[in-house]
């Protein structure tokens, strides 16, 4: 069987020889680019098109969805561990791709499935169940446990108490966030009405739509942005805050915090994480890494997968431009640097294994840990506190985030896999949450709750998957009496989103209003 990796700037030289290959591997970004330029992938008739990590096309308004749908093929397959992440429409997009009649468009899927369920018509849940049964071949870990023989996975919750100083800082911004959010608007409808009355302001501030409620778009006044500020404080106090927020804190003047400040200084940074732009930036590199392993026979069969010195390049804390999504405030880290309560909790658990002498066990290999965070700036701060401890044990760490190029990603993974002295892997969820195999580790640390619990599941599955030989321990951290505690309450509902309760709402408008009001409740 002949295979071709159709990827990179030199891929066009293989255009004429595509029919000679039995299997062609490519990335979603390459496919999108090819579709936009009317390239060969969309002009060739394939026997079979298989989408790995098929939830990438869950939004049917994206170019990636349209590019995938434009492929001509006799058979179409979707492989994904999370067919539904944000809404039932995600599943509808997959059906549209594989062209299951009559669900070949979002409108048809909503007419036959989504709308009746939202109208609380119980019998339509039976229709959905039959549809899932007819179109999906489910192979979950639970169903295949006897075949996969995966080790046990245990999850632990680490509740973090802020110091009095950290609590004072948090309460300062919490109070201002509450006042700002509730004084500006109560609902999306009120925003819309106010902008109709003031058309001159409409160019800058439009009524938020459903997507904006979760992305923090610049077009609306969004509680998510305020919540993101509080999340940063939970992680590392003032160290992750933008300059104008620090100024407000320095002078204890909450008046410095306005919607204009949020939109011009913070909102785009929050978008980089909430919208997964860092993940988009890394998608092609990530897929290329997986393809490279597959082309060399290094992939794990049918599984959907895939010497840093002690003197570190991390943290990247210096003067000059900061390319991290959170634009972390630069510190001259010295003796005055003190890790936050959250970082201290992470370090305590990571180092406990080392101090107990459990780095090596009967497997004759070290117990390794993966630390996931949403923010590259947080990884900077964790690494600055972690590396001195690792150095004392003659150990090292590796790291991968959206700023790494393909070679850096390859080197980081190789180092972590092959070097017994490299016992910690620092990673952003956006850059490594899927498509990466980290089974060499057996401990996972989720530094902060994520908006999308499915992204959290994907991150953990980098470690707990086929090829894992040890029991996996997962540590999840959240700050007591904070926005993180409230976010965690969402997770207790959302993981069952594929169940009936997720969709039994009166109609879409009421659901949107409920989400908006829930955001505002978080700021109380």
UniProtKB/TrEMBL annotation:
This is Transcription termination factor 2 (SNF2 family domain-containing protein). Residues 346-509 form the Helicase C-terminal domain. One of its GO terms (cellular component) is nucleus. One of its GO terms (molecular function) is hydrolase activity. One of its GO terms (biological process) is DNA repair. The keyword Membrane does not apply. SUPFAM superfamilies: P-loop containing nucleoside triphosphate hydrolases (SSF52540).
């Amino acid at each position: 069987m002949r295979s071709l990796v159709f990827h990179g700037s030199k891929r066009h030289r293989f255009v004429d020889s595509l029919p000679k290959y039995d299997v062609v591997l490519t990335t979603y970004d390459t496919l999108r680019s090819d579709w936009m330029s009317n390239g060969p992938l969309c002009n060739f008739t394939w026997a079979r098109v298989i989408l790995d990590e098929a939830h990438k096309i869950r939004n049917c308004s994206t170019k990636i969805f349209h590019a995938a749908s434009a492929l001509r093929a006799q058979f179409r397959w979707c492989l994904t561990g999370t067919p539904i992440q944000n809404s039932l429409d995600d599943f509808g997009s997959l059906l549209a791709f594989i062209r299951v009649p009559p669900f070949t468009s979002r409108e048809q899927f909503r007419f036959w499935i989504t709308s009746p369920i939202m109208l609380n018509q119980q019998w339509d849940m039976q229709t959905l169940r039959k549809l899932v049964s007819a179109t999906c071949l489910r192979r979950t870990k639970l169903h295949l446990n006897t075949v996969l023989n995966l080790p046990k996975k245990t999850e632990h919750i680490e509740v973090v108490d802020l110091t009095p100083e950290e609590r004072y800082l948090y309460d300062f911004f919490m109070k201002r966030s509450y006042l700002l959010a509730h004084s500006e608007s109560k609902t999306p409808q009120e925003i819309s009405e106010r902008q109709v009355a003031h058309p001159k302001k409409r160019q800058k501030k439009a009524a938020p739509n459903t997507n904006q409620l979760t992305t923090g778009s610049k077009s609306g006044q969004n509680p998510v942005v305020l919540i993101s500020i509080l999340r940063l404080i939970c992680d590392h106090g003032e160290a992750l805050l933008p300059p104008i927020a620090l100024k407000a804190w320095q002078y204890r003047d909450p008046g410095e915090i306005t919607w204009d400040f949020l939109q011009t200084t913070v909102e785009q940074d929050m978008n980089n994480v909430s919208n997964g732009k860092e993940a988009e930036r890394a998608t092609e590199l990530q897929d290329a890494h997986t393809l490279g392993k597959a082309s060399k026979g290094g992939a794990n069969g049918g599984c959907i997968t895939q010497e840093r010195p002690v003197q570190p390049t991390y943290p990247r804390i210096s003067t000059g431009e900061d390319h991290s999504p959170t634009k972390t405030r630069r510190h001259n880290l010295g003796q005055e640097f003190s890790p936050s309560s959250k970082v201290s909790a992470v370090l305590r658990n990571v180092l406990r294994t080392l101090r107990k002498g459990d780095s090596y066990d009967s497997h004759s290999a070290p117990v390794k840990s993966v630390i996931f965070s949403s923010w590259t700036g947080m990884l900077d701060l964790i690494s600055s506190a972690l590396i001195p401890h690792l150095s004392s044990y003659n150990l090292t760490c590796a790291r991968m985030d959206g700023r790494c190029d393909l070679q850096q990603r390859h080197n980081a993974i190789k180092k972590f896999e092959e070097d017994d002295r490299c016992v910690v892997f620092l990673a952003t969820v956006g850059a490594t949450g899927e498509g990466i195999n980290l089974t060499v580790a057996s401990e996972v640390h989720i530094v902060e709750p994520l908006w999308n619990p499915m992204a959290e599941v994907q991150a953990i599955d980098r470690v707990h998957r086929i090829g894992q030989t040890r029991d996996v321990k997962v540590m999840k951290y959240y700050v007591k009496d904070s926005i993180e505690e409230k976010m965690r309450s969402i997770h207790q509902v959302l993981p069952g989103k594929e169940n009936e309760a997720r969709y039994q709402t009166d109609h879409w408008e009421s659901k949107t209003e409920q989400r908006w009001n829930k955001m505002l409740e978080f700021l109380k």
